[in-house]
Amino acid sequence: MGKIPSSFRSMTSTHLVKKPTSCPLAPPRDPRNRIARRESVKISHHTDQVSREPLRNPFKTPDLSDAKSLFNSIAATSRIPLDLKFHNSVLQSYASIAAVDDTVKLFLHILKSQPGFSPEHSTFHILLSHACRAPDSSLSNVHLVLNLMVNNGVAPNQVTTDIAVRSLCESGRISEAMDLIKELSKNHSPPDTYTYNFLLKHLCKCGSLDVVYEFIDEMKETFEVKPDLVSYTILIDNVCNSKNLREAMRLVSALGDAGFKPDCFLYNTIMKGFCTLSKGSEAIIVYKKMKEEGVEPDRITYNTLIFGLSKSGRVEEARKYLQTMVEAGYEPDAVTYTSLMNGMCRKGASLGALSLLEEMEARGCAPNACTYNTLLYGLCKARLMDKGIELYGLMKSNGVKLESSAYATLVRGLVRSGKVAEAYEVFDYAVDSKSLTDVSAYTTLEATLKWLKKAKEQGLAV
Where is this region: Disordered (predicted)? Predict the structure, then answer.
C-alpha cells in the first residue's frame, strides 16, 4: 500500500547497461608469447572457456599509459579479430577504476589503433554511464560523450536518455537529470514512459510539488510527453505520504479528465492516506466511489479500511467490513485481525481482542509477532496481568520477540504488582532473544523501578 507496484518497480529499476563484476577481457592466448600471457591475466585457449571462467579486472592501476600498453599487448598477440564485445569489455573494466577523461582517451586510442573497431550505442553508453556518475555539476563530460556519439554517426536514442537519467538519479543528481532529459528531448530523443516515470518518482522524493508540476507541464507542452496512469499513481502516492489528501482527490479528477480510470491500487493508496490520519469516514467514501466506478476491492482494500476504522475507534463498523471481506472471497489474515485487536484494545475491550485470537486460529490464520505484541500491550495496559503473563508465556515458548512498547508495559505492570523478580526475568528474555539491546531493556526496567520507589515514598497509588 502506498508504494509503486512491484511490476512498475521492476520495469523502472532494470539497468540497460550492467556493470559486470568481472570482465572476460582477453582473447585466446598465443603460447609463444609469455610476456603477453602474463599481462593478459590467464588468457584462455578457447573463447568458450573464457565465458565459463570470468577474469578479474586486468587493469591494476588507473594510469592511462599502462592501460594503453596493456591493450596494445593484447591486440598485438591476438590470433583472432577483436570484436565489439571485447572492446566494450576493455572500456567497462578501465572505467571501473579510472577517471572519465582517461576512459575517453583510452576509447580514442582504441578507435585510432583499431581500424576495424566500429563503436555502437552500447560502447558510448558505457562512457555515458561513467560520465553521469562522475562529480561534475557542469555535465561537461556528459556532453563530451554525447558529442562523440554524434560525431561517430551514432545518434542518441531513448536508451541513451534512460541510461543518462538513471545514472544521474542514482548519483543523487536529480536537478541535472531533469535538465539533461529536456536537452535530449529537444536535440535527440524524448524519454519513453519508463524513463519519464523513473525521473518523476525521484523528483517527488526530492523536490517540491511545484517543481514536479512545472516539469510535467514543460514536458507536455514542449515535447508532448504526457503523464500516464503510472505517473498519476506516483503523484498521488507522493501527496498521500505528505498527508495532502485534498490534492490527492484533485489528482484523481485530473486523471479522469486525462482519459484514465483509477485502478484498485490507486484507490488503496488514497484510502491508506485517510486511514493514517484516522479519517475513517473519508476512507469509506473512497471505498464506495471505487465500487461505483466498477473497481473491485482486493484484500488490501479491506485490510486498509479495517485498519482505518479500528484506529478511529469504530471497531463495530470494522467488524462489519470483516464480514464483507469474507463474503467477497478474501480470508482475513494476521494483518486484518491485528488491526481489529488494536482497535478493541484502544477502546478497553482487551478481553474481546483476546477472543479474536481464538477466532483467527480457528480459521487457520497464524498470529504473528505484531499480533502477540498488540495483545500483550492491550492486556497489560488494562491491568489484566494474569492474562498478560499467560500470553507472555505463550510468546516465550514460541520464541516471539518482544516489541519495546509491549515490553515496557509488561515490565511496568509486573513491578506495579510487586512481581519484581518476574520483571527481571522478562528483562533477561528480552536481552537473550535480542528483542531489545541490553541498554534499552535495562533503561526501561531501571526507570520503572525508580518510578515505583518514588510513588511509594510519596504514598501514591500504583
Answer: 1-59
pLDDT of residue 461: 56
Cell numbers at residue 319, please? 467488524
Q: Which long-range contacts (CB under 8 A, 24 or more apart) does 390-398 make?
A: 391/354, 392/426, 396/429
| Identity of the amino acid at 433 | S
For residue 148, which of 173, 174, 125, 171 has the smallest C-alpha distance?
A: 125
Q: What integer is the mean pLDDT of 119-123?
A: 97
Average model confidence (pLDDT) across the chain: 87
Q: Produce one character per residue of 85-110: b if its CB has 16 or more CB atoms within 10 Å, e if not.
A: ebbbbbbbbbbbebebebbbebbeeb
Q: How many angstroms separate the CA atoms of 439 and 436, rounded?
A: 8
pTM of the model: 0.75
- Residue spans per domain, the chain: 402-462
Residues 56-87 pLDDT 10s: 788 999 999 999 999 999 999 988 889 999 99
3-state helix, strand, coil split of the chain in percent (to 5) is: 70, 0, 30
Residue 239 has pLDDT above 70, yes or no: yes
Give me the helix-helix angle, 404-416 and 420-432, nearest 10°: 160
**Cell numbers given for 393:** 508465556
Instruction: State the Cα angle at 241 between 236 and 243, rounded to 5°.
Output: 95
3-state secondary structure 287-350: HHHHHHCCCCCCHHHHHHHHHHHHHCCCHHHHHHHHHHHHHCCCCCCHHHHHHHHHHHHHCCCH
DSSP structural state of residue 171? T
pLDDT score at 2: 37
Contacts for 136 with CB less than 8 Å, ≥ 6 apart: 100, 142
Residue 251: CB atoms within 10 A of its CB come to 22
* ∠ CA 232-222-241, rounded to 5°: 25
- Mapped onto helix, strand or coil, the DSSP state of residue 59 is coil
